[in-house]
Each structure stands twice: as structure tokens, then as C-alpha cells.
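Input (structure):
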């Protein structure tokens, strides 16, 4: 073969191989792109199936119109996806998988339609037991079909993904084989030519060796015009094209690898997201299906599941009071209880809480993936377990933060997936807590009602207005009338009502309907025939479309008998009091005249015979004068005491500020002599006898001045505060005080705690104050301790407004 032909052959063969390689590469690239596109479509189908699973859970749990509409939209989108991409999948295996997905989609639409039209208001809480059982089975069937369809979508994705990777590997192997083939061919031809043209062949051999060694930039640069020169130039051209093709192939490989890597990363992220969603939904499903006796048990279980869901080792939950800005520790996870030896702090003011409360301050999740290196922290108390990583999230109820969840010591750093998982999980868990609280309140309310109903000392009846019979009653109702429970259930209201005839009973019921309630007295006949006085409180009770009479009755027979006895006793007591008051007044008045004579003549005797008799006679005369004066004072005090009720004036509005001003004028001399400091607050206007109320203030302030500590100036404070429809007055001093065992004694008539040599007086002042305050409808008492001063309190009814008077009328 001629050199020219050989060289032509050397030039043609590599070109043909390169063109073939290029064609194969373009075809394979299109196949890779097609397979990659089909894998993406399959992944989108799987994502749609996953969304349907989530919407099915949400529709089952909340049964809301929003979830229903979203499910139908997502199912319609799945049908469009399958129909639009049917032509894309050509192989029998792909067609089988796609047909399986299409059948599943049709079956899902049929199953979801079995729920029926969804009401606008939702009816999850109004489903009967049979409906709820049907919905549970229907939801389980839909979820089962979705679970079966998901592997088909994944299999479709994996099939095309594997094809894409296989074509890529084939392209690489083909390129290597073609380049190797070209190198081998050139080496064989070079060996043949060397035998005839050693130098050119050696040059060409070196060139081939360089190219074979990977130096595609090597060039011979021959200027010869013969066949070898043409061959050299052809070689140079071939090397140039080979270099360009290799560079292009390298770029394409890099682009393909980058696209495959990006798509693989996207698919891995989608798979991870799907796994997290499935894990969270499984935890929520288990939480919703588990029965909890108390809210604490529910939250404890939810906390442990949150720690496990976040792959953490410890956790806690604090309740947050947004009004008071305090955090209350509710629960530590079991691992914390086992490892933490520090003492629990039940409440944390938000301002004093550490960085673990930043999520409340920032109203968003906060992550500390390197807790030991944090600078702005309070530090851990002694005995606290080591904290390496920490994630805290606020739990919202509407716009308000109600709790804080914290987890810690995950082996890997906390990321956005952990935050999203915990936010979604705790949001659903908190809804369950709210429902548990409502259930607990309803249960407690029912128990309280049942306890009141059963344990009430009064008879309670719920009477059917159509039959007149009691449909519900407590034990007191039938026992008071002497009937057994079954006997009483067969009686109508007219069977034991004595005072009113049937037509009057019906008129009474109509009156209760008009006025909504009624309180009245009547008479009931017991099984033995005895008639008892009964007080009744009744109202109409509407349950559904039926009305009942709800009645509470009490046997007041003994009360009426006791009231009659008390009335007769009160009449007798009032007559005795009047006689006693008249006797005290007459006795004190009749004693005045002989006492005045004794006093006057004794004083005359003392003036006339002073010094003329012996010392004993003078002392005896002094005793007589002093006794007469004290007797006169006692009689005047007794007369004043008796006149509290007999000579008292009608009550009228009294401005206590003006009244205290007059009392201060009367005590002006005593105040100056004792250097007393009298402080009076803002006092009210009350309905009272101004003269008698002035006596109360004068006695209390006078006693405060009299019984002051030795060497100290009296300090007296007078004040008044409103308290539940009355005024509470107080007179405080810094005097010698009173021991507690004498608190009752000081208000008794003529009772003294000191001798007349120590403190003057008759011991009637506080008794007089007590009688005046009680006449005004109040009460008086004191608080004191020996050596620490005293505070006297007394109450007076408040002045009621015209509106209150009309209401009471």
C-alpha cells in the first residue's frame, strides 16, 4: 500500500471513529436527559402522593372544608400529571407502573367521594359513632392505597435514574475504547511506515507517543510536500481536532456530572423531607390515638416524643404568663430528672431568665449549637447536666405565647428541619392540650353538678310539663315526702301539692314561663298524710325542643315554727328591754336628788368643821365627798348608757369630716396639754345619729390621749375605707396597748383594767361606744398588743344611692 494511501487511511479512520463517537455521545446524552426528565416526573408524582397523604391525615383529624378542597385540588392535579406524561414513558415496565398509578388515582377519587358533600361549617365533632367508624375505615383505605402507590412512583423514578447512570457510564467507556482504538491503529500503521522511512516514521512515532501519552497539544510542524509531509500535516490536524473533541467531551462530562449531582442532592433532600413528614405524622397519629387521663400525662408524653423526634437527649417545657412576664417550669424530660441534680426553680421572671428564654423575647426559635462557647449567658447552676447544644421554640396560641419547648444535646447540630419538625409537632400537640382542657372542664363541671344535685340538702326536681311527673330527682326530694324512689317516680305534681289545685298549678307554671323564674311558699302532703310547709324556687329549663320545670324545694316547717317562737320571744324581750330601760332611767333619776343632798351637806360639813375635828373625821368627810362625786359620775354615765336607745335621734346623713372637726374642738385642751398629734384622713358621709357618733369618736380619741405611754406624745390616726357596702373606721394610737385576753372585757359595762389612781374614769366609755355602734347596725372590735399601741375598728352601713334604694325596694 502506498504511503499516500496509508496516510489517507490514517487520516480517515480516526475521523470516522471520532464522528461515530460524537454521534453516539449525542444520542446517549439525549437518552440521559430523557431518563433524567422521566425520573423528575416520577419524583413529582411521588411528591403529589405524599401531599395527598398529609392532606388525608389533616382531613381526617379536623374534617374541615379547607382540607377537603385542598385534597380534591391535589387529586385533580395528580390526574393531570398522569395524563400529561403518559406518552413520555414508553417501555412496558414503565407503562405498567404508570397504569398502576392511574388506577390508584381513580380509586382514590372514588374512595374520597364516599365522604359525601362537605358542609361549610365542618361536622367533625357531630359525627355519630357509626359515621366516625366509617370515616376511620375510609381514611385507612385511602392511606393504604397511597402507601401502595408511593413505591410504584419511587420504582418509576429509580428505573429511569438507573438508566441515566448506565448511559453515562457507557459514554465514558465508549470514549475510552474509541481513543484506545485510534491509538492502537496509529501505532500499527506507524510500525509499517518506520521500516521504509525511519526518520519520518521516528518523528511520527514520537508524535504518536506524545499524543498517546496525553499531550494532545503536540505538533510535528512539517513543511514537506511529499506524502510524509501531508501525513505530518494530517497528523497535526488530527491532533488539533482530537484535542478540541477531548476538551468538548470533558466539558460535557463535567456538566453532566454537575447536573446529576444537583439532581441527586435535590432528590435526597426531598426524600429526607418526606421521611421527616412521615415520622412526624406517625408521632402525631400515635399521640391522637392514645388516651390520657390528665393534661399533665398528655404533656409529659408529648414532651418525651418531641425530644425523640428532635433526636435529642434532654428536654423541658415551661408555661409562659404573658401578662405577668413569668415562666413556670411544668415538666423536665425523664433524662433530665435522672441526670440533673440541681434544685428546680418553679418560676422565672422573664427579665432574669437566661438565653434559653431568648425565643420568648424574640418570638421565634433560637438555636445554640455551641453552648459552651457562648459569652452572654448566666451559666449553669451547680449540679446541672452538661449542655452542649440547645434549641428552644415558643409555642403560640393565636398571637400569644403560652409555653416554651426546649431540647438539647443532639449529636449533630440543630438545623431548619429540627425547627420545622418541632413547630409543626408542638402546634398540633398544643391543640390536643386545649381539647384536653375543655374535656377536663366539662368533666369537672358535670361532676360538680352531679355532686350538687345528689348532695344538696334541698329537694331538686326536673318535671315534665306535659305529664307533671319528675323525670329526674335527688334522694332528698322523695325522702322528705316519705316515698321510695320508684313510688315517687310514678307521682305527678298534683298528687302531693296541697295548697294549689291543678288549674292553679298550671297558672303558676305559666307565670314562671313569663317571668322566667319564681320563688314562693306552698304545702306538700307526705305519704303518711302530714302536711309540711315548703319553700320553692322554680324556673323553666329548655332541653332541645322540650321544656321542663326545674324546681328546688326545702322543708321549712320547723323553721316556721321556730320563727313563730322567736317572734313571740322578741315581743317579750322588747317589752322587758323597755321596762329595764325605764327602770334604769327612773332609778338613776330618783337617785340624783338624795345623792345631791348627801354631796351638798357633806361639802358644807367639810367647809364648816374643817380643822375643828380630829384628822380621822376630816379623812372620813373626804371619803364621803369623793364617794358622792364618783357615785354622781356613775349615775350620769348609766343614764347616758340607757339613753342610747331611748333618747336616740333619727338617722340622717352625717359628714364625718365636719363631725371630727367639732370633736377636735371639744378635745382641744386635752390635745394641747398632752402635745398629741391627731391625723384625720378623708372620711365619708354616713346615715347616723350625729350626737351619738360624736360620742364614739370622742371616747376613742380621749382614751388614746389618756392611755399614752409615759414620756411619749400621743399619735392618733383616724381613717375610713369602703368595704362591701359598708364603711370601716379605724382609730389607731401609740399608747400602752391591751393584752388579747382583755379584748372582750374592755367593752363590758364598768370594766376597768387599771386602778383609779393610775387612770381616771368609770369604765363605761367603750361599752357606750359598743352600744352606739350596734344601734347603727355595725360592730366594733380592736387589735392591740401590750406596749405596742391599739387600733379600734368599727363599721357603719354605707349611704346607698337612689338606684340601690329602688332595687332593694
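Output (sequence):
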Amino acid at each position: 500500500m502506498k504511503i499516500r494511501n496509508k496516510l489517507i487511511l490514517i487520516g480517515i479512520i480516526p475521523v470516522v471513529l471520532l464522528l461515530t463517537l460524537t454521534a453516539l455521545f449525542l444520542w446517549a446524552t439525549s437518552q440521559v436527559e430523557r431518563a433524567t426528565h422521566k425520573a423528575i416526573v416520577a419524583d413529582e408524582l411521588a411528591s403529589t402522593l405524599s401531599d395527598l397523604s398529609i392532606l388525608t391525615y389533616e382531613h381526617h383529624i379536623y374534617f374541615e372544608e379547607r382540607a377537603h378542597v385542598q385534597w380534591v385540588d391535589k387529586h385533580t392535579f395528580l390526574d393531570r400529571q398522569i395524563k400529561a406524561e403518559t406518552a413520555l414513558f414508553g417501555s412496558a415496565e414503565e407503562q405498567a407502573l404508570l397504569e398502576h398509578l392511574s388506577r390508584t388515582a381513580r380509586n382514590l377519587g372514588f374512595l374520597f367521594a364516599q365522604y359525601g358533600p362537605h358542609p361549610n361549617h365542618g361536622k367533625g365533632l357531630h359525627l355519630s359513632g357509626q359515621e366516625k367508624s366509617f370515616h376511620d375505615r375510609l381514611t385507612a383505605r385511602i392511606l393504604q392505597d397511597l402507601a401502595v402507590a408511593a413505591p410504584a412512583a419511587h420504582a418509576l423514578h429509580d428505573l429511569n435514574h438507573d438508566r441515566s447512570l448506565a448511559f453515562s457510564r457507557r459514554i465514558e467507556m465508549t470514549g475510552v475504547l474509541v481513543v484506545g482504538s485510534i491509538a492502537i491503529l496509529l501505532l500499527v500503521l506507524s510500525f509499517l511506515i518506520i521500516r521504509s522511512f525511519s526518520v519520518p516514521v521516528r518523528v511520527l512515532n514520537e508524535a504518536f507517543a506524545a499524543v498517546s501519552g496525553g499531550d494532545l497539544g503536540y505538533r510535528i510542524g512539517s513543511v514537506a510536500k511529499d506524502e510524509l509531509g501531508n501525513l505530518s500535516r494530517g497528523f497535526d490536524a488530527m491532533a488539533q481536532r482530537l484535542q478540541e473533541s477531548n476538551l468538548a467531551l470533558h466539558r460535557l462530562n463535567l456538566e453532566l456530572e454537575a447536573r446529576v449531582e444537583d439532581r441527586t442532592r435535590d432528590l435526597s433532600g426531598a426524600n429526607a423531607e418526606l421521611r421527616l413528614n412521615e415520622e412526624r405524622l406517625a408521632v402525631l397519629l400515635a399521640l391522637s390515638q392514645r388516651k390520657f387521663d390528665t393534661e399533665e400525662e398528655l404533656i409529659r408524653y408529648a414532651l418525651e416524643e418531641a425530644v425523640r423526634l428532635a433526636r435529642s437527649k434532654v428536654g423541658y417545657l415551661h408555661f409562659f404568663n404573658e401578662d405577668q412576664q413569668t415562666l413556670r417550669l411544668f415538666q423536665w424530660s425523664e433524662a433530665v430528672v435522672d441526670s440533673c441534680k440541681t434544685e428546680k426553680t418553679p418560676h422565672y421572671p422573664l427579665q432574669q431568665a437566661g438565653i434559653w428564654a431568648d425565643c420568648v423575647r424574640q418570638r421565634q426559635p433560637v438555636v445554640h449549637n455551641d453552648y459552651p462557647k457562648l459569652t452572654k449567658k448566666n451559666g449553669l447552676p451547680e449540679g446541672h447536666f452538661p449542655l452542649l447544644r440547645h434549641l428552644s421554640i415558643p409555642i403560640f396560641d393565636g398571637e400569644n405565647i403560652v409555653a416554651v419547648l426546649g431540647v438539647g444535646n443532639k449529636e449533630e447540630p440543630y438545623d431548619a428541619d429540627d425547627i420545622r419538625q418541632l413547630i409543626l409537632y408542638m402546634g398540633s400537640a398544643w391543640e390536643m392540650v386545649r381539647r384536653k382542657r375543655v374535656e377536663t372542664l366539662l368533666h369537672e363541671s358535670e361532676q360538680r353538678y352531679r355532686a350538687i344535685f345528689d348532695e344538696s340538702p334541698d329537694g331538686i326536681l326536673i318535671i315534665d310539663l306535659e305529664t307533671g311527673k319528675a323525670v329526674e330527682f335527688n334522694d332528698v326530694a322523695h325522702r322528705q315526702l316519705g316515698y321510695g324512689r320508684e313510688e315517687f317516680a310514678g307521682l305527678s305534681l298534683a298528687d302531693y301539692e296541697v295548697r294549689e289545685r291543678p288549674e292553679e298549678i298550671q297558672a303558676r307554671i305559666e307565670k314562671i314561663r313569663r317571668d322566667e323564674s319564681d320563688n314562693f311558699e306552698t304545702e306538700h302532703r307526705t305519704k303518711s298524710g302530714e302536711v309540711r310547709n315548703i319553700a320553692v324556687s322554680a324556673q323553666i329549663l329548655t332541653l332541645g325542643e322540650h321544656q321542663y320545670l326545674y324546681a328546688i324545694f326545702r322543708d321549712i316547717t320547723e323553721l316556721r315554727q321556730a320563727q313563730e317562737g322567736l317572734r313571740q320571744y322578741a315581743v317579750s324581750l322588747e317589752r322587758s328591754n323597755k321596762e329595764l330601760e325605764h327602770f334604769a332611767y327612773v332609778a338613776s333619776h330618783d337617785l340624783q336628788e338624795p345623792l345631791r343632798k348627801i354631796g351638798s351637806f357633806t361639802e358644807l360639813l367639810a367647809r364648816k368643821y374643817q380643822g375643828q375635828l380630829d384628822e380621822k373625821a376630816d379623812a372620813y368627810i373626804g371619803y364621803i365627798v369623793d364617794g358622792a362625786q364618783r357615785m354622781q359620775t356613775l349615775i350620769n354615765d348609766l343614764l347616758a348608757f340607757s339613753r342610747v336607745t331611748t333618747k336616740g335621734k333619727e338617722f340622717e346623713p352625717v359628714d364625718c369630716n365636719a363631725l371630727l372637726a367639732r370633736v377636735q374642738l371639744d378635745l382641744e385642751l386635752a390635745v394641747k396639754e398632752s402635745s398629741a398629734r391627731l391625723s384625720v384622713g378623708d372620711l365619708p358621709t354616713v346615715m347616723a345619729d350625729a350626737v351619738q357618733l360624736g360620742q364614739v369618736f370622742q371616747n376613742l380619741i380621749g382614751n388614746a390621749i389618756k392611755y399614752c405611754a409615759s414620756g411619749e406624745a400621743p399619735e392618733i390616726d383616724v381613717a375610713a375605707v369602703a368595704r362591701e357596702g359598708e364603711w370601716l373606721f379605724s382609730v389607731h394610737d401609740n399608747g400602752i396597748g391591751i393584752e388579747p385576753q382583755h379584748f372582750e372585757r374592755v367593752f363590758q359595762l364598768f370594766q376597768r383594767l387599771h386602778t383609779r389612781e393610775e387612770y381616771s374614769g368609770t369604765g363605761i366609755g367603750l361599752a357606750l361606744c359598743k352600744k352606739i355602734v350596734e344601734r347603727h347596725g355595725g360592730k366594733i372590735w380592736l387589735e392591740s398588743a401590750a406596749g405596742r399601741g391599739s387600733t379600734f375598728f368599727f363599721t357603719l352601713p354605707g349611704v346607698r344611692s337612689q338606684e340601690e334604694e329602688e332595687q332593694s325596694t
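Notes: Residues 121-125, 801-809 have pLDDT under 50 and may be disordered. The longest helix spans residues 129-194.
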